[in-house]
Design brief:
Layout lengths: L4 H14 L4 H9 L3 H7 L4 H22 L11 H18 L4 H22 L7 H13 L13 H22 L7 H26 L5 H32 L1 H10 E4 L2 E4 L5
Antiparallel strand pairs: 1-2
Helix pairs in contact: 1-10, 2-9, 2-10, 3-9, 4-6, 4-7, 4-9, 5-6, 5-10, 6-7, 6-10, 7-8, 7-9, 7-10, 8-9, 9-10, 10-11
């Protein structure tokens, strides 16, 4: 199947978005110093607090995903509105520090999920389907990775493959029983896998907010970077999924992995394309 010029441009854009600089590098640029300084300022119990808050935030977000999102007709995503909402929660986090995390993170994560769903809708996803809703939740796993992962395990498609079985099991469970039972093994497994990756960005955000110069205004700016990062990942993810619906997943993955971007064009390294 031959790619249209527009679809090749979209694939190039998706690849650029999914391989953009990490959240940590953006926060370092904002603060003018490495995130590691903020990590050293955090109390000994911060890691457990972040882990617990991340899991609870994702559980809340999942409940929202399967309960309140709707299939409005595709339209441009309201990214700015969602950024304003997340910035407001970041202002509270910057003012009250780590103590505000258990309250702030579930709110900001839920707002970000709505923003991700908005992006998904604009790329033609049917949000009322469980598959699309879990694809929205999946975005939280695509923006970071545990330190124990090696490079071969952290690429965009590698993460999707790693999550595939857990997503399938969760989708089957939710279709049959809903998400009322938070301790259901299928739900716990999916939340755990996503939390291990999403927690990387949450930890970086918390570390940035721990730097002494951070206050309410800077906390809002950090949350703006936080939501912008995931909006970009969502756009790349749902562009890829849209192209997969047109060309098939194997062809899109091969093109994504093998294309070389040259100026304004694309040179594909395999003759089959």
């Amino acid at each position: 199947m031959t790619f249209t010029a527009a679809d090749l441009d979209d694939l190039r854009r998706a690849r650029r978005l999914l391989e953009r600089p990490s959240l940590a590098s953006k926060l370092t640029s904002l603060l003018g110093e490495p995130i590691e300084r903020g990590v050293k300022l955090l109390p000994p119990a911060w890691s457990g607090l972040v882990t617990g808050a991340t899991r609870r935030a994702l559980q809340t977000a999942l409940a929202v995903a399967v309960g309140t999102l709707d299939d409005r007709a595709p339209r441009p995503a309201a990214n700015r509105l969602h950024k304003i909402a997340v910035a407001a929660t970041g202002a509270g986090g910057g003012a009250f520090g780590l103590a505000a995390l258990p309250i702030e993170l579930p709110i900001s994560t839920t707002v970000m999920l709505r923003s991700i769903a908005d992006v998904a809708r604009s790329e033609g996803e049917r949000i009322r389907t469980i598959e699309a809703q879990l694809a929205c939740l999946e975005v939280f796993a695509l923006g970071g990775h545990p330190a124990s992962d090696d490079a071969a395990e952290t690429g965009y498609f590698a993460v999707r493959v790693a999550l595939a079985r857990a997503v399938s099991e969760a989708a089957e469970y939710i279709a049959e029983r809903g998400v009322a039972q938070e301790g259901a093994p299928a739900i716990v497994r999916l939340i755990g896998l996503i939390a291990s990756r999403f927690g990387v960005e949450v930890s970086e955000k918390v570390a940035a907010q721990a730097v002494p110069v951070i206050g309410a205004a800077a906390g809002a700016t950090i949350n703006l970077l936080f939501v912008d990062h995931f909006q970009a990942v969502a756009r790349g993810h749902f562009i890829v999924r849209r192209l997969e619906r047109t060309y098939g997943a194997p062809l899109i993955r091969a093109a994504y992995d093998n294309q070389r971007l040259i100026g304004g064009g694309v040179e594909v390294l395999s003759s089959e394309f």
